[in-house]
Structure formats: structure tokens, C-alpha cells
Amino acid sequence: MRPSGRDLNEMRAVSIETGFTKHAEGSCLIKMGDTHVLCTATIEDRVPPFMKGSGLGWVTAEYGMLPRATNTRMRREAASGKQGGRTVEIQRLIGRALRAGVDRVALGERQITVDCDVIQADGGTRCASITGGWVALRLAVNKLMKTGDVISDPLVDPVAAVSCGIYAGQPVLDLDYPEDSEAGVDGNFIMTGSSKLIEVQMSAEGSVFSRAQMDQLMDLAEKGVAELAASQKAATA
Fold it and tell me: Which HAMAP family match (predicted)?
């Protein structure tokens, strides 16, 4: 039995509220169970220096957690003068994941920055950030297409992510914090809406896992991402 009472292949409740902030070109509040992330997308008519004159667009991301997103207060990273290694790793992951679903030629020579701010954390914050980040990106691109700044849709496929792991000896979908903190194996699966893999992060944390178990987790992830992609499409329709 999972702590939440969910079935092994059952996602947490997912909701995506679009237009959550006033100023960003695209924004949403995504809730995956008790993990809540605010995602905003900002369009800029510039690209990083190494891309100037290339004709290619760029999508990047930043990630952060509010001090009381967790059980105890965390010090703001700005107060220490630098980002932690975990933050840097996650925001690079978000950027890589979102770029995988973008036709950068069609986007044109501009940059879209996706900011993911964790309001409340209960496991799977990077997965929620990627899933909600794509929604914010979709909304921002819709504005570019509406104004005619972009002619051909640069978003070739939704991008979403979900965690899976081995908890109490069983493969489970969409780990919350009580499961994530005790899982013998856990991983993050980033996929397109058409079930193509973008990135898989897997690690054994107390017990090894077999190829058969890996296949079970892949099947769970594919099911979860399909559900998330359906939620993304409904939110941006």
C-alpha cells in the first residue's frame, strides 16, 4: 500500500491554471498533488552571444524554491550569493528538456526564458517544472504566432516529465515525498507527447534493479506522460 493510498500506476491529481500572472507572455500554476510550481515564459528579441547571427532561437530555464516550500525554512540562495549545485543541475535539465521539443529555426533568432518557482514541494518538483514549463512556453509561442512574428509553429511536440521508482519492492508511478525519500530506486522520465524519450535519470538508492524492473518503470512513465500531455493540451486549447 502506498502512503497516499494510490494504485501503483496512479498519478497524483494534476491541475494546470493558465494565465496565472499578469505580465509574463506565458504563465501557469501547475499542481501535481501537493507539489505546486509557478511557471512563466518571457520572450526577448535577443539570443546568447554565441548564437548571434545563427538564425536559431534559444529556450533556457531558471529554477528556484521559496524558503518555505519545504517542511523547514531554507535560506534563499540569493542570501548566500550563489546557486546550489542542485538548483543549477535542475534548471539545466529543464532547459535541455524544453529545447528538445522546439524547432529552433522556426522560432527565429529570439530567446524564451522559462522561470520555474516552487511554491510548495512534495516530491517531483523538476518533473512538475518541465511539464508546467512547456505550458508556459506554449502560451508564449501562441502570442508570437498571433502577432505574426512566428509563422510556422516551433513547438513540434509537448514535453512532460514524471517520476517512477521502486517503493516497498513495487514499481510505482509519480512518487510523492514520503515515497521518494524511502524508494530503493527512483528516476525521472522526460518524454514527448508522442512517447519519444528525451532524458532518463535513474539511480539505485539502497537496492539495485533489474532490466525487467526498468521496463516496468518505462511502461509506467509512458502512461504518466500520456496523461500529463493530455492535461497540457487541455490547458492550452
Answer: RNase_PH
